[in-house]
Amino acid sequence: MQEQETESGFKNALRVLRFRNYRVYTIGNSISQIGIWIQRIAVGWLAWQLTHSGFWLGMCAAGDLVPSIVISPFAGALADRVNKVTLIQISMVLGMIQSWALAILTFMGIIDVWMLFGLTVALGTINALNQPARLAIIPNLVGPDSLGSAVAINSLIFNIARFIGPATAGFVIAEGNIGLAFTLNALTYVAFIYSVWLVDAPDDRRPVIGKSHFWRDLGGGYSYALRDPGIGKMFILLIITTVGIRGFVEMFPGFADEVFDRGPKGLAFLTATVGLGAVVGGLYMLRRNSLKGLATLVIRATLVMSLGLVAFAWTSTYWLALFFVFFVGIAMCATGIGAQTLIQTSTTPAMRGRVMGFYGMIFRAGPSMNALLLGGFSERFGMQWPVVGGACVCLLGWLWIRTHQSAIEHALEEDASRVAAQGAPAQ
């Protein structure tokens, strides 16, 4: 039975790539994700070089915190009203301009931490604007039966990039060319802009009746997401884990230099090992071809992620740290793919942009808030203890969600069946 499900899961993944729109979009997205990770590592290392401060590591990581909280809900409502392809294209051009600005300032040797922070906030604003559209467009590119596999492939691409990008960044930074890292990211935007231009996705925006409806729609999206017995509790778990755990990667420059004394190459290995674990987790999730038991898997992976992070933070042995973050990467990927699949498949199409805007806000603002808290506490308690504290908060969240497990599974599977019966555009 398991072998049949595994085989079916991989076959479904191959079928997803036969959708032209999804295939073209995925190629450009794959290249862009590598560039994003190159820049992310470069920003962290540059912030550390400029300040040697855990606080500024957290601040630069949290540069997209306020934009995500303020803009993401509006961007979600906007994604339900405008052409998603156009919205993505405009934001990608703006992101490319931001990368070129970082590269030029760094090559000229005039960048300081305030410029770095300001440009990070600018990119956070751009990403908050486009993320709901990037998430909500996926069902437009594939058939409804392939949505779970499409989400898994997207996450797998993200995590393969998390392996390749940091390794590339580590090599570039070690050679003393941080500006080149920003240049590489700017160039990857070109590939993604071109691929999105080639996409011919169905335009599923809703007709706009009056301006006042925008605010009503905005509130309706939040109400729908939080009041649903399955989606609402899944969102609460996501809030707990993102604020408690998911910003720990942004602290890696401090861990690599201060805790393990390994420099930029140590930073690249730490980040790439999380990415490698996430690739393994993504491949495992790709094998699945059913929503049954998926909520249970997300809850169990939350436990593994929390315990693995406690073990990582407590050790001062570099190779043991790599071992632990590998399993944290597996669990993080499983929770991310599982939660997004459950939310996407359980949300009615008319609400998808707003719900995914809420999802995007949590997945951008939560890790940023976590990184900001970890950075602030690290100034007083060192790098390790704040990470342990965040993981313990997630363990408490796991205990709470565990008591609602059966009800969540039933509600989500029932919602998914109802949404699937409605159908979805898939050319």
Describe this structure in words.
This protein is mainly α. The chain has a single domain, classed as Growth Hormone, Chain: A (Up-down Bundle). 82% of the residues lie in helices and 0% in strands. The protein contains 18 helices and no strands. It has helices spanning 2-16, 20-51, 54-61, 65-79, 84-108, 113-136, 138-141, 147-174, 178-198, 212-227, 231-244, 252-259, 263-287, 294-314, 318-346, 352-381, 384-402, 405-422. Helix 4 packs parallel to helix 6 (113-136). The protein is globular and about 55 Å long.
Quick summary of this structure?
It is built from 18 helices and no strands. 82% of the residues lie in helices and 0% in strands.
Under CATH, the homologous superfamily reads MFS general substrate transporter like domains
Number of domains: 1
CATH third-tier fold name: Growth Hormone, Chain: A
Task: Please give the largest β-sheet.
Answer: none
| Distance separating the two termini | 31 Å
